[in-house]
Amino acid sequence: MPWPSRKRDKGAVADKKEPNAKIAKTEEETPDKEEEEKSTKPPAGSSKSGWKNWKKTKESDSGGEESKITYCHWLLKSEPESRLEKGVDVKFSIDDLKAQPNQTTFWDGVRNYQARNFLRAMKLGQQAFFYHSNCKEPGIVGIVKIVKEAYPDHTQFDQKDPHYDSSSRKENPKWSMVDVQFVRMTKRFIPLSEIKAHHLAHKADGGPLKNMMLFTRQRLSIQPLTKEEFDFVLSLEEEKPH
């Protein structure tokens, strides 16, 4: 295959910059737990004005009607820094994606059932944030789109692959993958710390990031986003970093 398996459900770890993150050997070994925040107040220096201005604009656009909570966007975690897993480097950055033929590749190596189910729910043309994970500065670096819906992940049958699963059968494969294509870089890097500041503020005032899975199911490498979550995070690229 063109690149080693680059996704991080088997052996997933929480981001290094996440202060309340709980490290786990694998996503299967430890049940997901909601992050316990010591305080619902945003960190010093953060502001709720971004959410209020965004909300005012959205209400003006929609007549103030609240849309149903549905997941139509995604967040995909991948490691931009070299790390060996069973002797194979699982590094895969957004630059690696851009270097692929037609800037397209398969999103393989997911070995968590909830993350797999999210993969299987993805629809053609839906967009996702490309998130650099398990690195010095985790955060969102770009946008990709789904160009092929879920189909069997071939790495589960490859004994040389670090994500080989001897219990999976070709007649009834356990694991799936999708194909993604590079859309664009975000106008600026949006760090985890900045997203978390908004998440904490929104937990207090009911903003769109209050239940964002990046903080409630932080170890999942495939995460769904509502339209409101996606639009708000995307709006951050227009703001100057704090």
Automatic annotation (TrEMBL):
The UniProt regions of compositional bias labelled Low complexity, in chain numbering, are 41-52
CDD domains registered for this protein in UniProt: EVE
Region of interest (Disordered), residue spans: 1-65
Swiss-Prot/TrEMBL keywords: Nucleus, Phosphoprotein
Segments of skewed composition (Basic and acidic residues) = 10-28, 56-65
Database matches in InterPro entries: 5hmC_binding, EVE_domain, PUA-like_sf, THYN1-like_EVE
Secreted: is it a keyword of this entry? no
Cellular component terms, GO, for this chain's entry? nucleus
UniProt cross-references to Pfam families, sorted A to Z: EVE (PF01878)
Domain of life of the source: Eukaryota
Reported function: Specifically binds 5-hydroxymethylcytosine (5hmC), suggesting that it acts as a specific reader of 5hmC.
What is the protein's name according to its record? Thymocyte nuclear protein 1
- What would be the name of the gene that encodes this protein? Thyn1
